[in-house]
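Entry 14. Structure prediction run on the chain below.
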Amino acid sequence: MRVTHTWLDDTARIRLEGIRETVTMYHCTDAHVAVPEEEKGPNPARVDRISTMAHAREVIFRQTIERVAASDVDLIALTGDIINFPTPSSIEFVTGVLRGIETPWLFTSGNHDWLLPGVENEDGLLREAWWDRLEPLHKGSPSHCSREVGGIEFVCVDNSTFRVDEEQLAFVRECLGKQLPTVLLYHIPISLPTLRDDSIASVGHNLMADPEWHPEVEWWDPKATDAFVETLAGAENLVATFCGHIHIPHADSLSRTAVQYVGAPGFSGFGRMAEFRPW
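Output returned:
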């Protein structure tokens, strides 16, 4: 499959074989919406600090989503940390904005979408404990899902614990096996040599499959994660991946055909408009 990429921090222009018409996707990540009325969680000091910006984040998110939806984009991709932590008011606000538009959207979790400050992620199960509360956003498919738009397979994988499991790996391989042009959506970027220094400077060792960082916890098993990265590197029909987490824009090759696009934070009004054009 022939693919070419050109990009700026807020755009991506991708020409590829296998589609007949242009498909547009808006990538939004790290909006960190925090509705102040309910922000009284287990860490009030932190809540007070973020609440000073909460209203601005609400306004920015609503205006961004409504503006993008009005532009007749084909898909909105939300790759995690859309809310700052899962209080009912924040989830209801974001869900209300999304239900108010006609544009299809896909959501996959970031760590902030399920991790309350001061609550331990024992055995890596806290994310799953909060999946029910996030159902209005992931629409019943919290771990992985896919949607075909205009001949492109868009695949969500929740890697917000810095790993994927065997079930997610099998799902991604199944999707790639359809031989459609495929785009992956996840929260935490895969470690690349050109990204590591900038990530460390921004947020520390916060990349998936980074050779110098693995948590020292019993539930951490890198086998499926490493196999996931290897699968992406060898997939001839993988077009691109879109992610966030580290609050800086970046783009670089992940494989012969695919570029990993890291988005700037939505709370600052940033996003990336991607156009997939026929070859």
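The longest helix spans residues 44-70.
Filed with the rest of this week's runs.
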